[in-house]
């Protein structure tokens, strides 16, 4: 059966296209999208009236696929879409008659894998060449980006979220850049006459205009390096978790290489959202991703680090996505197309079968892990709590009193943005472990909570979002961190219940007995006189309320096999922090400190963290990032120390290494009872 491509010539053709798109996308996405009209069973949006529509027809005249293009001299994209696509910079740099926006590429399911998409793309590109188009912009779902790269498109702006659907990657195509089209072996290269070649001039102009404009894909060297990092296997592999590419040979992996692409995500950027229906799967190359099951991503149930897979493939079954997946830090991932198993299976059925089996293993493992996490949360939520209404009495003491030394000062960091990212990562990663412990300590919905030393506000905001009836007050002395926290609370829509005030651990600007639950996380290790902070925490907490402290203890760090020269460096770090008024062994002392402060029913829990639970990169950054800063302040961040840290970072990521450290959560009850 042959396919011919024509331009919709009249209203009847366009109405047929609108009906084709409605039937196709309503069935695939299973939800209402912009432009859908269920009553008339058609899909038409604001771009259609001034678009040129291309239709792929089979021998019977049935629509097998379509695509449309808009010339920006005829109109403009909506403000939201235009901003995501860089419309204004492009219009400043190019003639609007030479810019097109191409969209709505759709192929009937029974025609996918044939020549329909390439025929449509070819027809559009031929028209671009005849009209002298210099740049064509479009966007693609992440699971289809690879197809656009093969045609010759390149990324130039960050991915954006299309409401109700998912992430879309802005792409730009230069129809006259013959050298690039030939380099990527684009089938469209044969359409470009030699005299139309612009010698890369348009691409150079775009590189100057958009810093993220780049040539996608893997070169031979980076591909080999990437697979070496991904395929970690062998007799000494003691990991509990199955890796997606464990056991595959270099030849197997090279067979898969042409079908994958790289994508970078910024901190807090969502890759997939719960309820979206687009299939897709990926593997983390660097950085770390959070997986959240609760509403609005309140509860992070897993942290995925390098070489770990994420998402679900079409081969494993259709349906809505079951979790939110987002970047905890700047993260690079390798995206797999939804039909990867089918693609591999066409050329190597045995390899396709092994890959499908491995994907099922990974999925089953993740289901067991997530189920265990949710059961732990459910068990912790049944612990007895202490509900009561807070009382309000006297005001806080004058903040002009004695202020003891402490080992942390935000102003001492050379790179404030980097430190904010470290604090944010720390709060996000550890929160999934903290919430069950806090629930067991007496945290519940409806309380007024003090977050002492709230930093950039990540945990305060997460707490407010998790407990919809709670009010959280963050106390933070550093203005830049408070501003970051306020912005975060505004962005998540919780600013009315999550506020931040200036204050210190020794001078909390709240009245006596005015909060139900007082919490200090990773603060006490920096205090030379933690007794003063506990006295203040007890003062502002009502009778019967809870005082809770989370902190570290370097004595809980266990690394095997050991890293040479690490132990003397660790002792030096303790001494440096002690000289600044801190204590790296404070975790073991918390129970005694709380009891000495006059609190009743003091208890301590340990939260164990491993590279497997939060990812090797996050494990290292959280456990050792501030230690590096301490060595720098103590004048000991020399080449020898840097070499040990580099070895340590590499060591904890090895599958043969066991590494762990613990957080100590101590809590007690303020004596007396509320009125």
Quick one: CATH superfamily of the largest domain? Answer: Vaccinia Virus protein VP39
Number of domains: 3
**What's the overall average pLDDT, rounded?**
80
CATH architectural group of the largest domain: 3-Layer(aba) Sandwich
Query: Based on helices, strands and strand pairing, what is the structural class?
Result: alpha+beta
Q: Taking Cα atoms only, what radius of gyration do you get, to the nearest Å?
A: 29 Å
Poorly predicted regions: 218-240, 372-403
Could you say what the CATH topology of the largest domain is called? Rossmann fold
> Count of helices?
20
Strand residue content: 15-25%
Provide the CATH top-level class of the largest domain.
Alpha Beta
Task: Tell the overall outline.
Answer: elongated
Structural overview:
The protein has 675 residues and is of the alpha+beta class. The chain folds into 3 domains: 206 residues, Gcn5-related N-acetyltransferase (GNAT) (Aminopeptidase, 3-Layer(aba) Sandwich); 160 residues, Jelly Rolls; 260 residues, Vaccinia Virus protein VP39 (Rossmann fold, 3-Layer(aba) Sandwich), CATH 3.40.50.150. The chain is built from 20 helices and 26 strands. The strands form 5 sheets. Strands 1, 4, 5, 6, 7, 8, 9 and 10 form an 8-stranded mixed beta sheet that branches. Strands 19, 20, 21, 22, 23, 24, 25 and 26 form an 8-stranded mixed beta sheet that branches. A 4-stranded antiparallel beta sheet has the order 11-18-13-16, with helices on one face. Strand 22, helix 15 and strand 23 form a beta-alpha-beta unit. It is elongated and about 85 Å long.
């Amino acid at each position: 059966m042959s396919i011919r491509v024509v331009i919709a010539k009249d209203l009847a053709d366009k109405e047929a296209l609108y009906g084709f798109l409605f039937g196709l996308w309503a069935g695939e996405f299973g939800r209402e999208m912009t432009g859908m009209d269920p009553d008339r069973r058609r899909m038409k949006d604001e771009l259609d009236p001034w678009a040129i529509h291309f239709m792929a027809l089979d021998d019977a005249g049935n629509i097998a696929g379509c695509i449309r293009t808009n010339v920006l001299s005829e109109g403009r994209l909506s403000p939201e879409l235009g901003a995501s696509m860089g419309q204004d910079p492009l219009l400043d740099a190019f003639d609007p008659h030479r810019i097109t926006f191409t969209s709505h590429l759709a192929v009937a399911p029974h025609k996918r894998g044939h020549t329909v998409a390439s025929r449509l793309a070819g027809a559009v590109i031929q028209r671009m060449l005849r009209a002298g188009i210099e740049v064509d912009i479009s966007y693609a779902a992440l699971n289809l980006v690879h197809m656009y790269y093969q045609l010759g498109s390149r990324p130039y702006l960050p991915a954006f979220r299309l409401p109700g659907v998912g992430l879309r990657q802005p792409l730009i195509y230069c129809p006259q850049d013959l050298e690039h089209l030939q380099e990527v072996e684009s089938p469209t290269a044969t359409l470009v006459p030699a005299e139309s070649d612009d010698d890369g001039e348009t691409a150079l102009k775009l590189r100057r205009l958009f810093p993220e404009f780049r040539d996608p894909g893997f070169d031979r060297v980076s591909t080999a390096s990437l697979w070496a990092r991904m395929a970690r296997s062998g007799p000494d592999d003691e990991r509990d978790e199955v890796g997606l590419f464990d056991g595959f040979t270099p030849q197997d992996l090279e067979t898969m290489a042409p079908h994958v692409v790289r994508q970078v995500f910024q901190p807090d950027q969502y890759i997939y959202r719960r309820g979206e229906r687009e299939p897709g799967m990926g593997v983390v190359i660097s950085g770390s991703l959070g997986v959240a099951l609760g509403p609005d991503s309140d509860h992070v149930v897993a942290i995925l680090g390098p070489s770990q897979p994420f998402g679900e493939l079409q081969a494993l079954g259709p349906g809505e996505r079951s979790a939110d997946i987002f970047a905890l830090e700047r993260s690079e991932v390798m995206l797999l197309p939804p039909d990867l198993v089918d693609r591999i299976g066409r050329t190597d059925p045995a390899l396709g079968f092994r890959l499908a089996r491995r994907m099922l293993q990974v999925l089953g493992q993740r289901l067991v892990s997530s189920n265990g996490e949710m059961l732990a949360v459910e068990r912790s939520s049944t612990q007895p709590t202490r509900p009561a209404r807070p009382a309000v009495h006297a005001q806080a003491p004058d903040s002009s009193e004695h202020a003891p030394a402490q080992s942390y000062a935000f102003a001492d960091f050379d790179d404030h943005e980097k430190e904010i990212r470290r604090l944010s990562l720390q709060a996000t990663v550890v929160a999934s472990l903290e919430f069950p412990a806090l629930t067991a300590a007496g945290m519940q919905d409806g309380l007024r909570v003090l977050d002492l030393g709230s930093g950039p506000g990540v945990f305060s905001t997460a707490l407010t979002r998790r407990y919809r009836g709670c009010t959280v007050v963050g106390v933070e002395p550093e203005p830049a961190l408070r501003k970051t926290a306020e912005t975060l609370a505004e962005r998540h829509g919780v600013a009315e219940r999550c506020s931040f005030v200036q204050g210190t651990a020794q001078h909390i600007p709240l009245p006596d007995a005015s909060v139900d639950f007082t919490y200090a996380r990773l603060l006490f290790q920096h205090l030379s006189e933690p007794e003063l902070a506990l006295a203040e925490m007890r003062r502002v907490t009502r009778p019967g309320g809870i005082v809770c402290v989370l902190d570290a203890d370097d004595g809980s760090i266990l690394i095997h096999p050991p890293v040479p020269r690490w132990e003397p460096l660790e002792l030096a770090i303790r001494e440096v922090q002690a000289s600044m008024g801190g204590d790296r062994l404070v975790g073991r002392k918390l129970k005694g400190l709380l009891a000495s402060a006059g609190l009743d029913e003091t208890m301590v829990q340990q939260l164990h963290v491993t590279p497997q639970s939060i990812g090797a990169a996050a494990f290292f950054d959280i456990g050792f990032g501030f230690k590096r800063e301490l060595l720098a302040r103590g004048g000991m961040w020399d080449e020898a120390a840097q070499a040990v840290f580099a070895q340590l970072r590499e060591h904890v990521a090895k599958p043969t290494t066991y590494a762990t450290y613990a957080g100590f959560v101590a809590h007690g009850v303020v004596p007396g009872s509320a009125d």
